[in-house]
Amino acid sequence: HVGMWVQIVMMCCEALGRSLLFSLAFSLHLHERVGMRTPMSPLADVVYAILRQRVPSPRPQLTYEELAGQLPLPFADVVAHDSRLWAALGEIVHACHAHGLPALSAIVVRAAEGTPGAGYFPVAHPKEAGDRMHEIVAWGNEIQKVMKSTYPPTL
């Protein structure tokens, strides 16, 4: 089916006078949407490798601080309250969902509350975001799936 869509997009782009480069870029976008590897940032790749080692497990959770403490060079300057870490965790949510997997980022929690930070919910559970009770239920369901899942070496 992807090949057919790529041909249709290329024909439409030619008809509209768009360049082949635009056609190729859109085709690559389609490939990502149908389950091919979605490139992640180097930090997200490293975080994913750390997290996937923790599952399947009955207690896979770790805090943002613990995760930041396990990051190798050149990411040793990334700390728990770092937007780069949060962005990497968001990339992992998107990549997991694109592959039909539960969001592995669900295992990263705040030390005091034992739940993900506020930024997790709009990315992983946008329909529930903003309603704390629904957020916690959605996260609880997700973490149950994560605890039983095995993740591939790369997404």
Please characterize this protein's 3D structure:
- 54% of the residues lie in helices and 3% in strands.
- The chain is mainly α.
- The protein has a two-stranded parallel ribbon with strand order 1-2.
- Helix 3 packs across helix 5.
- It starts with a helix and ends in a 7-residue tail after the last helix.
- The relative contact order is 0.14.
- Mean pLDDT is 83; it is low at 1-13 and 15-35.
Biggest sheet character: 2 strands, parallel
User: Strand tally, please?
Assistant: 2
Bin the helical content. 40-55%
Cα gyration radius (Å): 18 Å
Label the structural class: mainly alpha
Low-confidence stretches: 1-13, 15-35
Proportion of strand residues: under 5%
Number of helices: 7
Name the strands of the widest sheet in spatial order. Answer: 1-2
Whole-number mean pLDDT:
83
**C-alpha termini separation:** 22 Å
How would you sum up the global shape?
globular
**What series of H and E elements makes up the topology?**
HHHEHHEHH
Structure described in brief:
This protein is mainly α.
Q: What order do the helices and strands come in, and which of them pair?
A:
Blueprint: H1 2-15, H2 20-33, H3 42-52, E1 62-63, H4 64-69, H5 83-98, E2 108-109, H6 120-124, H7 132-148
Parallel strand pairs: 1-2
Helix pairs in contact: 1-2, 3-5
Salient structural properties:
disordered N terminus, 7 helices, 2 strands, two-stranded parallel ribbon, mainly alpha, 155 residues
